[in-house]
Amino acid sequence: MNEPALAARTLVVLLGDWRGSGTTYRNLADRIRLLILDGRIPSGTRLPAERELAERLGLSRATISSAYRDLRERAVLHSVRGSGSVARINPASLAREPGGRPVLLDLARASLPAAPQLPEAALAAAEALPRYLDADSDPVGLPELRAAIAARYSAQGLPTRPDQIMVTLGAQHAIGLVTRLFLARGDRALIEHPSYPYAHDTMRALGARVVAVPVTAETGWDADELIDTVERTSPALAYLMPDFHNPTGASMPRDLRERLCRVAAKQGTVLLIDETTADLDIDRPGPMRPFAVDNRSGAEIITVGTVGKTLWAGIRLGWIRAEAATITRLVASRTRSDLGTSILEQLTVLEAFKAMPQILELRQRQLRATRDVTVSYLSSRVPEWQIPHVHGGLALWVNLGTPVSSRLTLTARQHGLLLSAGPRFGADGAFERFLRIPITGPSEVTETALAALVDSWEELRAAPDLELPPPGRY
Ligand SMILES: Cc1ncc(COP(=O)(O)O)c(C=O)c1O
């Protein structure tokens, strides 16, 4: 029984408001299935014992048994005598929903297709490789690539030396390295709410006490609340996405950046700034301005970046920008988990950097086309939803007007459409009113997926237990 166990009380919080019009066991199974499919219950987690969950939910043990049986039949749960019931997705089961159509459309992930310049960059990297064959594994990054990343920051108004850069296996790896160095069990960590879920998971796994501050698509950060929270709680680390925040698309105004740096310097809070989405500009007023430019107070700022959204998510390459002494500490701690980034991939990125202006222009065109199609389609077909206007980023954080995001996600699977329900981006079951709709896919494919989304919404509206106002009347 080595699997991590999920306490019954935690599962009850994750379940949120799960009851609906169907049979109780089926509603419960549906909601647990969604939690497993979207990763809120990680694969390999042991679910609570039937009796314990029955007590917590005030249901009979037979109902829980039926729900678990249903989950086993639908290939997301595995039961072994003596080990209990463990969440485990059978990949073959994902291709087709029971009684439904094959799953074809994906509005769950927000990643762009590989840049067309990539194969040429990879070929040039392969040609350059013989010059590097004497090199050993590389925990800090090739000098040429560190210099190129530093030069990009300098050109954006943030003077940076190569010894302030460390190359990583993507931004998520960078977040893991920084949080492991700066957060100990019981430390406070500030995150935005909603936020990028894997960063949140990383902090929770380290045993940090998470303090959440709200961000909305319409008004962004509540400036006073953010500053007060840092002042009051003095978190060891604050994880923020100031440019095209994922999932809301909000960008932080300059005066708030300055205030935040000031309060962080005063309270000794390290700011972990995730600029993964910062290059995804559609019509941002003004050029990209790295967050650390506005640090006039001596706050410790650690910035992470990646080529995952510009070049390709399949190239596992990102970086950390920090003070040189912090980079030295990060490099020293890295060898506990990995020994460095592939040299061939570093050379590929170095080559691809030469075409970065064209790649960013292409991304801008792709994102603009899909954003515009999505906004105009949804505004005309589902006027009751609140659709934000974003200037860039990965997605639209749509307010459904009513807390049914998980139910909509389950209904959509019957229409061959994958969605990420709002609570995936929050803690403790929050954001049932919201759905993240990516703008990263090709606009034609997105239009087909949106048609399936609208069909799913109409089916859900017809559910007898849902009392939604008529279309267009929120
Ligand atoms: C905000 C944010 N940070 C980090 C990452 C992870 O990036 P990478 O693929 O470089 O690990 C993502 C990926 O979606 C993201 O959205």
TrEMBL record:
<dbReference type="GO" id="GO:0008483">
    <property type="term" value="F:transaminase activity"/>
</dbReference>
<dbReference type="GO" id="GO:0003700">
    <property type="term" value="F:DNA-binding transcription factor activity"/>
</dbReference>
<dbReference type="InterPro" id="IPR015421">
    <property type="entry name" value="PyrdxlP-dep_Trfase_major"/>
</dbReference>
<keyword id="KW-0804">Transcription</keyword>
<feature type="domain" description="HTH gntR-type">
    <location>
        <begin position="22"/>
        <end position="90"/>
    </location>
</feature>
<dbReference type="InterPro" id="IPR036388">
    <property type="entry name" value="WH-like_DNA-bd_sf"/>
</dbReference>
<comment type="similarity">
    <text>In the C-terminal section; belongs to the class-I pyridoxal-phosphate-dependent aminotransferase family.</text>
</comment>
<keyword id="KW-0805">Transcription regulation</keyword>
<protein>
    <submittedName>
        <fullName>PLP-dependent aminotransferase family protein</fullName>
    </submittedName>
</protein>
<dbReference type="InterPro" id="IPR004839">
    <property type="entry name" value="Aminotransferase_I/II_large"/>
</dbReference>
<dbReference type="InterPro" id="IPR051446">
    <property type="entry name" value="HTH_trans_reg/aminotransferase"/>
</dbReference>
<dbReference type="InterPro" id="IPR000524">
    <property type="entry name" value="Tscrpt_reg_HTH_GntR"/>
</dbReference>
<keyword id="KW-0032">Aminotransferase</keyword>
<keyword id="KW-0663">Pyridoxal phosphate</keyword>
<dbReference type="Pfam" id="PF00155">
    <property type="entry name" value="Aminotran_1_2"/>
</dbReference>
<dbReference type="GO" id="GO:0030170">
    <property type="term" value="F:pyridoxal phosphate binding"/>
</dbReference>
<dbReference type="InterPro" id="IPR036390">
    <property type="entry name" value="WH_DNA-bd_sf"/>
</dbReference>
<dbReference type="Pfam" id="PF00392">
    <property type="entry name" value="GntR"/>
</dbReference>
<dbReference type="GO" id="GO:0003677">
    <property type="term" value="F:DNA binding"/>
</dbReference>
<dbReference type="InterPro" id="IPR015424">
    <property type="entry name" value="PyrdxlP-dep_Trfase"/>
</dbReference>
<keyword id="KW-0808">Transferase</keyword>
<keyword id="KW-0238">DNA-binding</keyword>
